[in-house]
Amino acid sequence: MIPFLETALNLLVALLLVVGAIFSLLAAIGIVRFPDLYTRMHAASKAGTIGSGLLLLAAGVHSLDAAILIRALAGFFFFVLTAPISAHLLAKAAHQAGYRLTKLSVIDQLPQKEEPGRR
Questions:
Q1: pLDDT tens digit at each of 119 positions of the chain
Q2: Among residues 72, 79, 78, 32, which one has the least CA distance to residue 51?
Q3: DSSP string covering 40-92, please?
Q4: 56 near 62, Cβ under 8 Å?
Q5: Spatial distance between the Cα atoms of 105 and 42, rounded to a whole number of angstroms
Q6: Which region, left, alpha or beta, applies to residue 48 given φ > 0 means left and ψ of -120 to 50 means alpha?
Q7: Nearest to 52 by CA among 66, 60, 106
Q8: Are 48 and 89 in contact (CB under 8 A)?
């Protein structure tokens, strides 16, 4: 392989690894530090998805194999498409089950379930 191209690929892999690790670290910090279930879930679904996707992409680029890179790209797009949807559904289910927002939240835009006999 051409030395310049090898160095460029190594730098790309290193950049993807560092950025993916930073996003994963921020997701972990958000899970620990945020005050309620909904904000924790937001940190895990957004930053965690991007972090794990970039780490997967770095592994695909590092392999120097087109088949592995295509699988890594497919996995990255699967993460990006499914994690926010599943987080939204889990948050909606938690809201319906009665988990309340933190007092720091300004407004709850989801309607509450009405109790039978109350209007």
A1: 688 899 999 999 999 999 999 999 999 999 999 998 888 998 889 898 999 999 999 999 999 999 999 999 999 999 889 988 999 899 889 888 888 888 887 777 777 665 555 44
A2: 79
A3: HHHHHHHHHHHHHHHHHHHHHHHHT-HHHHHHHHHHHHHHHHHHHHHHHHHHH
A4: no
A5: 14
A6: alpha
A7: 60
A8: no
Token pair belonging to 29 = 């910090």
Q: Residues near 90 by Cβ (< 8 Å), separated by ≥ 6?
A: 41
Q: Are 38 and 90 in contact (CB under 8 A)?
A: no
Angstrom CA distances, 59 to 9, 46, 71, 88, 115, stand at 12, 20, 10, 28, 52
Which residue has tokens 């087109």?
66
The angle, 0 to 180 degrees and rounded to 10, between the axes of the packed helices 37-63 and 66-97 is: 170
Give the residue among 17, 24, 11 at the shortest CA–CA distance from 57.
17
Q: Read off the pTM.
A: 0.81
Contacts of 56 (CB under 8 A, 6+ apart): 72, 75, 76, 79
